[in-house]
Each structure stands twice: as C-alpha cells, then as structure tokens.
Automatic annotation (TrEMBL):
EC number assigned by the record: 2.7.11.1
Enzyme class: transferase
Record field: catalytic activity: L-seryl-[protein] + ATP = O-phospho-L-seryl-[protein] + ADP + H(+); L-threonyl-[protein] + ATP = O-phospho-L-threonyl-[protein] + ADP + H(+)
Record keyword Hydrolase present: no
InterPro entries documented for this protein: Kinase-like_dom_sf, Prot_kinase_dom, Ser/Thr_kinase_AS, WNK_Ser-Thr_kinase
UniProt source species: Oryza sativa subsp. japonica
GO MF term set: ATP binding; protein serine/threonine kinase activity
Keywords associated with the record: ATP-binding, Kinase, Nucleotide-binding, Serine/threonine-protein kinase, Transferase
PANTHER family assigned to the protein according to its UniProt record, in alphabetical order: SERINE/THREONINE-PROTEIN KINASE WNK WITH NO LYSINE -RELATED (PTHR13902)
Pfam families linked: Pkinase
Protein name: non-specific serine/threonine protein kinase
ATP-binding found in the keyword field: yes
The Protein kinase domain, residue ranges: 34-251
Length: 251
C-alpha cells in the first residue's frame, strides 16, 4: 500500500511513451495502475475514472479528488481523507476494497484506487432492472447486513452514517453488492455521537437528536430496503428536509 503523502511523477521520455502506448491519461507512482479518460461517475469534488491494474490484469476505479475544489468546500477535504484512511484499514467481502492511494502534489489531487463495480450503485441498478424477485432482494440485504455487522464489530464500532442505495455498489453479473462511500463514517464515541450528518431521508430519529450509536445504521438499512422495494426514496412526498424531519420524529 502506498502512503497518502507519496507524490506522483510521470516524468518525460520513457514515461510519455508508456502513457501513449497504453492509452493512459496518467499512471500512479509505481507504474502499476493506469488511468483512462473515461469517466464512470462524477460528484461535486470527486471524479471516478476507469483504470487498469497491470499486475493483476483487471480494471479498477480510479478516484480523483481535486484538492483546490475541496478546500473551497470546507469540511470536504477532511471527509475524503477520512474515507481513504478508513477504507485502507478495512478488509471484508461486504466492503468496497481500497487498493492504493497517494497525493499528486504537482496536480494538487488526491487519488485512490478501488474495486470497479460494473453495474454502478444499487439505486442505478434497481432503476434499470425494475422486475426483481423477493429472493434477490433478500440476497442483497444479507450481503449489506454482513458488511454492516463487520463495521459494527470493530472496537470501537464503526458507524457508516450515510447508508443508502446510492452508497451500495453492484457487480450485476455476480449478484454481488458492497458498502462504499465511507466519507462520513466514524468510530463510536463512548457517549454516542453528537453530530447530525447523513441524508435526511435515511437518518434515524436519534441522529436528528444528535445522540446515536451504530443502531442508526440499522434504521438506515430499513430505509434502503424500502427504497429497493418501492423504487423510490423514502419520504418522497416531502419537498424539503424540514418536512422529512417532522415526519421522522412523529413516527
């Protein structure tokens, strides 16, 4: 595993020829991973490209965060660093696998390479395949719960804090789902957490009260199941977070 402070250096001459020959836009500092210009996903601060692992001969997801963009975004930089460091320590069949990470100082970018999920997120997958049996949904649920159990079994437990179908990734040809996007994840403190974070539609009542533990993830899982079955976000009838909050605390 490469350290987070390792710097990128493509160089000239042979390095340029290597990029041109392989069709890469850039390579990592070891030369193991190459990035193509094909964009698989894009957020406010992060772009996910298709990449290739030459050592194993498999395609990967090359995640690139432009540091100048996240610095302007306040706590975003801290969130991305937190996700990378946490992923680096996790090894489980139900959690997205991190292969490498490094800082590209000249480009002012944080790069991290993860597994590639050919079918996107569970929300995207469910929208494409609207007719799914209850047995298939149960298999997805079992895998998600397996990943959650792994996170919660840590000492102290790890709380995902933003579990939703947008943050669960799918390899559709294998029926495989894994939990990802751990940018808001945190270790449980002794007295419970006191920070209200997450996606309103999936947040447990105690999260709004700013006093919660890993059981908040179990509530979010229930909302994920509701989304899988109905093909819609929970509380889709609400037009803003305030309305969602009122519905949640009134249950």
């Amino acid at each position: 595993m490469m350290g987070a402070l390792q710097q990128q250096s493509n160089g000239h001459g042979h390095g340029v020829l290597l990029l041109a020959e392989a069709g890469y836009a850039e390579v990592d500092p070891t030369g193991r991973y190459g990035r193509f210009n094909e964009i698989l996903g894009k957020g406010s601060s992060k772009i996910v490209y298709r990449g290739f692992d030459e050592w194993r001969g498999v395609e990967v997801a090359w995640n690139q965060v432009r540091l100048r963009d996240v610095v302007r975004g306040g706590g975003e930089l801290e969130r991305f660093y937190g996700e990378v460091h946490l992923l680096a320590a996790l090894r489980h069949r139900g959690i997205v696998r991190l292969h490498a990470y490094w800082v590209d100082a000249p480009r002012r970018a944080l790069n991290f390479v993860t597994e590639l999920f050919v079918s996107g997120t569970l929300r995207q997958y469910r929208e494409r395949h609207r007719r799914v049996s209850a047995a298939a949904v149960r298999r997805w649920c079992a895998q998600i719960l397996d990943g959650l159990a792994y996170l919660h079994a840590h000492s102290p437990p790890i709380i995902h804090r933003d579990l939703k179908c947008d943050n669960i990734f799918v390899n559709g040809n294998q029926g495989e789902v894994k939990i990802g996007d751990l940018g808001l994840a945190a270790f449980r403190r002794g007295g419970g957490h006191a920070r209200c974070v997450g996606t309103p539609e999936f947040m447990a009542p105690e999260v709004y009260d700013e006093s919660y533990d890993e059981l908040a993830d179990v509530y979010s899982f229930g909302m994920c199941v509701l989304e899988m079955v109905t093909l819609d976000y929970p509380y889709s009838e609400c037009s803003n977070p305030i309305q969602i909050y009122k519905r949640v605390i009134s249950v």
